[in-house]
Amino acid sequence: MNGVTDLPLLSLLVVLPLAGSAGALLAGLRGSRQGVLWISGISLAAQTIFAGWIAAYTGVHGTVREVVGGWSVTTGITVMIGPATALVLLVVLAVALAIHVYAAGSPPEGMVRTTVFFVVYGIVVSGLAATILAEDLFNLFVSLEVVSLGAVVLVAYRRTPRSMIAALRYLVISTVTIALYLVGLLILYRQTGELGISRVAQALMATPPAGRAVPIALALIVTGLTTRVASVPFHVWLPDAHSEAPHPVSALLSGLVLKAAFLALYRVYLAFAPAMTSLVPILMAMGAVSALLGVILALAQRSAKRLLAFHSVSQMGLILVGIGGTGALVHAASHAAFKSLLFLVVGVLATRRGTADIYELRTAPAGKEPGRWEQAFFLIGAGAIAGVPGLSGFVGKGLITTSVRSVPFLQLLVQLVSVGTAASFIKLGTAFFPRVVEPAAATTTPPSSNRLAPLTLAGMAIPGAITILIGVAGGIHAGLFTVAKGGNALATLAIGAVLFRLLVSSPGKSLAGGLSGVRLGLDSSLTAILLGAVVLAMVV
Amino acid sequence: MSFLPEGLRWYLAGAIFLVGLGGIFTNRRAVGKVIALNILNSALVLFFILLGSSAGDSAPILFRGDEAAVDPLVQALMLTAIVVGVCVTALLLVLIQRLYDATGTTDVDEIERILNERRH
Lengths: 540, 120
Prior knowledge:
The structure holds two protein chains of two kinds. Chain A has 21 helices and five strands. Chain A is mainly alpha-helical. The longest helix of chain A has 32 residues, at 161-192. Chain A is globular and about 75 Å long. Chain A starts with a strand and ends with a helix. The model of chain B has no long low-confidence stretch (mean pLDDT 88). In chain B, helix 1 packs antiparallel against helix 2. Chain B is mostly helical. Chain B contains four helices and no strands. Classes of the chains: A mainly alpha, B mainly alpha.
């Protein structure tokens, strides 16, 4: 490849948080709680600063790579990143730092638990960077496994039976699908003798092999990766895992883990799309189904966290629909920021009230109602996901709509999903702008109980600022602030409001109750995934 | 293994893979699923080792220069994959033990049913 600059130390992006975790572990063993928080925090801050420098460097010099350990390119492990991906990586790591700050604002009680949480958190963030940088299929496998093993520990972290069964399902499903991915890798290695993503693709372009082996291999690899991206029908693990996890972990999973997996899928797509023309329509179709199904199921949820989790399925679907254009990467970055923000701000509310049920949160006892900051951050996050002009979601959705303008059906679909999204965030909004009632007689709550800790506030301010920054700068840069686009956004919100009224009518409620009651058991989930993989292998 | 013809080895490894995959579906109890996952992983390791041995079957160390050595890359890959598999197994077993303590069963469907009932 031309235009690739060697940049030694690129792998520091992976090493820094790992070193931070090792240091935090030592501090934890010595009994220093502050040490754990500071060491892991500083390592993540250093990583983010380094990612910022790399984003600037790749902006000037183009794609950079490092062959770890100074081996030759053909034998060594290569890490690589291009300018566009570097920007998404920067957003991902900045949000990871923000979530760390938020979690440090209310660290779990107990020395051991604090240590375990922040050590594993650093390992997962390191795995995210490794996933985004991985240039070969096997390192991608290892990075994905590091992320999912760490994520499982964090999901089950509160040790409630519900969170542990969610973690178990997540781990079993991701292990089975990654086994399929490895079979795909085996076939490709056998055909080409290469493991590097671009080298495998080049070898296949040079001598296109006959037969079904390569398409099937690719289908298996796509199965493994789209499971991590949570595309229908491979999304079945997500709603439980994302909603049962502690709030900062939900933000990490929905905002960042999905994004790292998407960037890996994007890299595979870029390399193989020229050789496999059927790959693009398949990914777009999976995205379309996910976008629509995700938003329908989100509308039916009572729990604020499950609602957000299903929106992740839907938004990742939208990103896949736009995979052919720049909209996918922009929306991936903006979703990383606003979805994390939403989980964090819902987390504040759910922690104070002891429930995440939207219907209970609609009325708040005086003194426990959401504060101004929470309402402001909620409006930023919800406005972004609903596509309000000036916020990041508007830019991503606008670019995705432009990229599918030759397919009217997909444009209509993006519109429908936007309406559904607006409706469900009006529904969630009732929890942030509740009817305030006087507290029951004897219980007097201190008036300051809706104050936020400074760290909690800072943790939400970073993704909030990123959301506004992408929204304003991206909107101006892409020329999206036109009357037509603005009018479209307003109309979407208005229709969404109507849909919300229908939803809270009694037939709407019973329909929602029926839909949200549908839960697949583990065996049915695995069957769905295997059938999905078989169908994929037949159509690729 | 040289007494087995090349094609048959692949079929045998494939059969082990299918046993693992089937076991994950047919075992109701979680520990059975974990064992099945391990069988699946072992079959994968066999696949890769078979692939590596198609290049030759002597060890790729202390070369005299005339022997046909196995492909060492796949062996390095499989060492990593085995380590990952051990981590997954350990984590799964811890989760299963905790769930058993909480619900008194290792049947995944039963656990999910019990937990859903507790919610209502």
